[in-house]
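1st attempt posting a full record on here, be nice pls
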Amino acid sequence: MNKQEKGEMVVCSSSFFFLLLASSLLLSSSSTTSSSPHAACSILKLPNLATLSFEEGYTQLFGDSNLMLHRNGRTVHLSLDQRTGTQMLFFRLCFVGFVSVTSLQPSVSDGGLDCTAFHGVGQWVGAGFASQDLYLHGFFSASIKLPSDYAAGVVVAFYMSNGDIFEKTHDELDFEFLGNIRGREWRVQTNVYGNGSTAIGREERYGLWFDPTEDFHQYSILWSHDKILFYIDNTPIREVIRSQAMGGQFPSKPMSLYATIWDGSNWATLGGRYKVNYKYAPYIAEFGDLILHGCAVDPSDHTQSCQRPDVLLYDAITMSTVQRSAMEKFRKKYMTYSYCHDRVRYQTLLPECEIGPESESFHSSGETKLNKHRNRAKRHRWSSAGTALSG
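the predicted structure (as tokens):
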């Protein structure tokens, strides 16, 4: 993998570049070659996007010694294992469809969610951390390396949420990584919730063109007033546009950033068919290249808005033809489930869904009809034109 330099974000928008210049930000642009599908795009170097150490922007959420810092706090290891003895921590995981909401406050109302409390003797112990601040819009990123070998039931999450503050109207943006049995690849899932719309899941799931257990790969969320973009290694994989159709279900309140690892045996791998096997523990997820670039806000200020020019400019980002083509190719080749094709769950499609000829490639359950599982011995690399090449 060709990793981007510290503080760089790929942007392919002449309007964005003009606005940055007009704002008197110090920028330099350069072309680069990359293994990702949009290598023809230029890279704008934003000085404020320097990576952070753990102490500079984060705090431990749970897990005690299952969170370990390395490289002077530049890399964080989260581990999942099974211990004997009484856990000092009491926490809950609440499941909404396929997405988890972590709460450290047992008194919080469940609001109809499926919640499980973990405490007592011989329970599993995961770990997690969160940003020290809440943010209203911005760019949030981490390079992640997932546990290898048998990892069925293991869930690693990198997400934004405000469920601890807005109990009944919370927002959420998710990357979730779902482990698998030996020889089967990890799956990646994204989801979007707004204003407590937990009864409506906007899940999408994907395979990957690489083995996420062999090296670090970058996962990023760009969240502005008008759009949400999910990236993997700077390749856009999903775009959510604010629209009248979505109404208040577009995330609009300040959120914290979270990273967790935990036991999702009851649902994560084939609906719970395969469980976590602790003879392979500890399962370790590694996080590095941590970026928090957004408006840090006071949650008690309900009239707040983002006034930072460098963050406001995220609204001006538009995908180039090359980037959009790369996203479409990724989705066509690697998307394995989409809520927009799930006629069983949604007999009436959600208003933002536009169904075209690609719907014929999906079952009524929203699952793909195509066999998109890949033998891990088979590797692919991306050409500069955005096509996958065997290697």
